[in-house]
Amino acid sequence: MHVLAQSTAVAKVAASGCLRRSPNPSVTFQRSPSLLLLPAACRRRCRRGCSVSVDVRCALGAMVTPELNGGDVGVGVGGGSFDFQRYLSARADAVNDALDRAMPRGFPERLCESMRYSVLAGGKRVRPVLALAACELVGGDAAAATPVACAVEMIHTMSLIHDDMPCMDDDALRRGRPSNHVAFGEFTALLAGDALHALAFEHVARGCGDHGVPADRTLRAVAELGSASGTGGVAAGQVADKESEGLPVSLAMLEYIHVHKTARLLEAAAVSGAIVGGGADAEVERVRRYARCVGLLFQVVDDVLDMTSTSEQLGKTAGKDVEADKATYPKLLGVDKAREYAADLLAMAEAELDGFDAERAAPLRHLARFIAYRQH
After folding, report:
1. What is the DSSP-derived secondary structure letter of residue 259?
2. Would the pTM count as exceeding 0.85?
């Protein structure tokens, strides 16, 4: 199917909110292109109809709401209110402290300094917070998921260090300061990423045991993170992304790239948190579907921001996707349709939390909204 035909179909479906038949009886257009690769239960849920309010669509259209970009977020949950900014700040601080303790010091000094430079550079800590919140969602103690939270941030940071290198995206700016290879040189940056990847799995294996997590849960978490960083996740997405530069890319291929390059690691963070927290299999799978939608949502918003924001606003070089002639959701669908798609993904993610305890689900519900409305 040509990209133009796909885009037209998606536009019609977004307007109708239901399944439609194309003029070609052998092709069925779904409500959102992501449904091709989302888990089956997510597809079924969306076919039943995901209600996306006008307010949500308008907020996503602007990619900003006052509540989520300054001050407290107090949305009624179970008759009360939930202060998401306070929750996010406290969890991020706890993760930062744990990462500081986990990062190596000493010899070889330059390698350790390079690792610490990127891991402790800040960032939203979305993936670690996902792990902690998913652990609490299923009734676990967030402390048990701290090793997983740190490990997933190490893996994520590894991917950023490698992604910025000249052989990849060749980006000199990351989180508002020089990229690792600019600050430390290419070979040190490469090895810092490799060392972080190895440290992540060592940290889970040792740390979960120290927190009393049963060995079988620890092993499942290690397997989940390994799958998400290799050929079942980040590495596969990166290869597909680089090979597609300058070439015509279908929505299905774009979805493959982003499911693997971005969504899979967010999914693994949440799933691993739920696993070490003792979640039942059905609960873990619901968390997986939630996080898959959130992961794609993160990438759609990222694509829109890259096209509509400045480097100063983003803390990294804006417009790199356009310069590299990469396929993005705004490029294939247009900015407005990409924002509509983000609204659909937000609704699908929140729907997966229905049935969980409302107070325990509040952090994940607000985290999805935070990702949808973020400005950098």
Report:
1. I
2. no
